[in-house]
């Protein structure tokens, strides 16, 4: 995993180009502490930059940007290709002569042999740019699950791209604040793709590639996502067998590295399964780590111990206390590439992974989204019933006393994004309007016309909930937070539940088998042979910190002077201080007002 950047501008001053690409890479040094590299083609005003976190082929031969032997193509790559060895063997039979042991060179070779069709063949997490010298085209490519970030801007006949939005602010081109980002953030708790905090800087959609034509200085975006397989797995025993086998295969692939790799063990079902499967593969070489708290209501230590008793590697547990948050708060805020109402937990676990000598950590992200682990899966019937009510009644719900019930208002939009915001929204439009001093009508129009993939309209029930959780919550919040918080420590987080082969297996399972009455029942059944009953037969807890009391005591986000000019926002902070509002809503206000 690394950080990448690039600028293509035929009309730019070459010295300025050189300086700008250096500034972009310098701003992302934390994500690539092992090496730095640049590529220049003055004839077309192209600059590629790279910051390296070395995990596969640690030698200088893995240096990037990398070129094919004949210099036909150049790549700057962030991520991992887990099936690179299989692809390398196949490409070798075509006569390609490999010079390195890296997965980066496999991408280059695959493109040389198969062109853009190669993008579908990669099983991994990736964001990369390839410049084709022969065709005079440059491609930006992002993995189908959106694990690795890739942002771009195409203003004034130029293409600029980067792994982080912050990098765009470091260069000579004038990027201004996106005026709508605060609306998105206060509603979603994150900034949903394709939008960012900067105007004209967008997130490339997962499973897509952007083609930049150097001759015409134009671009187009194309999907390379595979067609979903037919749901042929209808028998429970077959579903269990396939989930068991393909997840174990995925974990084995994700353990491939030439640098120290470990597992984050929270004590929940997902991380416990990943830990036990990793232990089966690596045994005494496995390093696992956990976080615990003095506040026993938040500690899962007893469940972690049940798992570590079954493993043979080295386990480290770390105690996080209120003073740790107080001491690290400003550093955590600085690590955020985009505003988020989550991510503090991820910052800490990656801090300790770094201290533990690791370069990569396996995580259980994705299981709840794929197997029905969230409350949203049981609420789709409620949505269907509520949407039968007249819109004026749904709109009236904004006046209800309960904050959760107020969100019924979002169902008046009659579009999928309204359903998601009913399930997971933060502030309703009326509150957002008062916080930002804008009209509620403007907010309603923005969300009623929000761009969303038409695929979701073809789904219903738990499959629809899974789409919401995967494509909105996970991609925009969990994966994004995990990426910039881990990379702030120079750590790579790998997510076996999002392995492409595993996802294809899940997509082929009929809904009645994939989403039984018991939450995550299919996943539990697939690993009951190794998973202690005490871990899976208990209420869902989730990996959370005691932030409610810590933030109230610490006062980091509740200084009323910050909100002095807005009576409504000040009132919300007073509610938080009185323990009548969740910390995440107060944290959202803080991030909005600190930017004013």
From TrEMBL:
Reactions accelerated catalytically: L-aspartate + L-glutamine + ATP + H2O = L-asparagine + L-glutamate + AMP + diphosphate + H(+)
InterPro entries (alphabetical): Asn_synth_AEB (IPR006426), Asn_synthase (IPR001962), ASN_synthetase/amidase (IPR051786), AsnB_N (IPR033738), GATase_2_dom (IPR017932), Ntn_hydrolases_N (IPR029055), Rossmann-like_a/b/a_fold (IPR014729)
Xref: Gene3D superfamilies: Glutamine Phosphoribosylpyrophosphate, subunit 1, domain 1, HUPs
GO (cellular component) term, any one: cytosol
Enzyme class, UniProt record, top EC level: ligase
Sequence ranges assigned to domain Glutamine amidotransferase type-2 in this UniProt record: 2-215
UniProt name for this protein: asparagine synthase (glutamine-hydrolyzing)
Organism listed in the record: Pedobacter petrophilus
Gene name of the encoded protein: asnB
């Amino acid at each position: 995993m690394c950080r990448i950047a690039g600028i293509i501008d035929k009309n730019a001053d070459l010295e300025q180009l050189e300086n700008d690409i250096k500034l972009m890479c310098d701003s992302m040094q934390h994500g690539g502490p092992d090496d730095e590299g640049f590529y220049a083609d003055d004839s077309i005003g192209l600059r590629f930059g790279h910051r390296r976190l070395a995990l596969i082929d640690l030698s200088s031969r893995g240096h990037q940007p990398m070129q094919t032997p004949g210099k036909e193509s150049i790549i700057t790559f962030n991520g991992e290709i887990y099936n690179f060895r299989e692809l390398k063997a196949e490409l070798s039979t075509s006569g390609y002569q490999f010079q390195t042991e890296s997965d980066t060179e496999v991408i280059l070779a695959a493109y040389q042999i198969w062109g853009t069709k190669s993008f579908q063949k990669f099983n991994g997490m990736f964001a990369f740019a390839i410049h084709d010298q022969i065709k005079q085209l440059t491609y930006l490519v992002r993995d189908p699950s959106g694990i690795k970030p890739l942002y771009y801007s195409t203003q004034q006949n130029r293409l600029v791209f980067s792994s982080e939005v912050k990098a765009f602010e470091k260069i000579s081109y004038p990027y201004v604040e996106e005026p709508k980002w605060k609306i998105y953030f206060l509603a979603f708790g994150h900034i949903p793709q394709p939008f960012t905090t900067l105007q004209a800087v967008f997130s490339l959609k997962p499973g897509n590639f952007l083609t930049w034509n150097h001759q015409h200085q134009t671009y187009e975006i194309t999907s390379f996502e595979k067609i979903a397989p037919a749901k042929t797995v209808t028998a429970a025993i077959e579903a269990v067998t396939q989930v068991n086998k393909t997840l174990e295969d995925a974990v084995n692939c994700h353990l491939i590295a030439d640098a120290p790799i470990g597992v984050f063990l929270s004590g929940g079902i997902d991380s416990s399964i990943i830990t036990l499967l990793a232990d089966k593969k690596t045994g005494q070489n496995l390093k696992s780590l956990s976080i615990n708290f003095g506040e026993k209501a938040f500690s899962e230590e007893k469940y972690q111990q049940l798992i570590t008793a079954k493993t043979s590697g080295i386990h480290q547990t770390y105690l996080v206390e209120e003073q740790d948050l107080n001491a690290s708060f400003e550093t955590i805020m600085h690590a955020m590439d985009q505003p988020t109402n989550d991510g503090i937990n991820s910052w800490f676990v990656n801090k300790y992974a770094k201290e533990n000598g690791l370069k990569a950590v396996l995580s259980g992200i994705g299981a709840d989204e794929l197997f029905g682990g969230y409350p949203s899966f049981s609420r789709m019937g409620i949505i269907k019933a509520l949407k039968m009510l007249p819109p004026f009644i749904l709109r009236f719900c904004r006046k209800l006393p309960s904050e959760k019930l107020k969100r019924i208002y979002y169902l008046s939009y009659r579009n999928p994004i309204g359903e998601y915001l009913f399930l997971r929204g933060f502030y309703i439009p009326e509150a957002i309007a008062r916080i930002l001093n804008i009209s509620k009508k403007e907010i309603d129009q923005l969300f009623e016309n929000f761009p969303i993939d038409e695929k979701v309209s073809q789904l219903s029930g738990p499959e629809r909930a899974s789409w919401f959780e995967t494509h909105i919550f996970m991609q925009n919040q969990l994966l994004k937070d995990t990426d910039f918080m881990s990379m702030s420590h120079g750590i790579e987080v790998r997510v076996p539940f999002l392995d492409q082969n595993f996802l294809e297996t899940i997509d082929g399972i009929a809904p009645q088998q994939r989403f039984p009455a018991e939450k995550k029942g299919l996943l539990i059944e697939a690993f009951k042979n190794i998973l202690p009953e005490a871990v899976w037969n208990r209420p869902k807890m989730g990996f959370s910190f005691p932030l409610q009391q810590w933030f109230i005591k610490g006062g980091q986000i509740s200084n009323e002077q910050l909100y002095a000019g807005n009576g409504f926002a000040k009132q919300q902070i007073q509610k938080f201080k009185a323990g009548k509002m969740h910390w995440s809503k107060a944290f959202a206000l803080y991030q909005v007002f600190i930017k004013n």
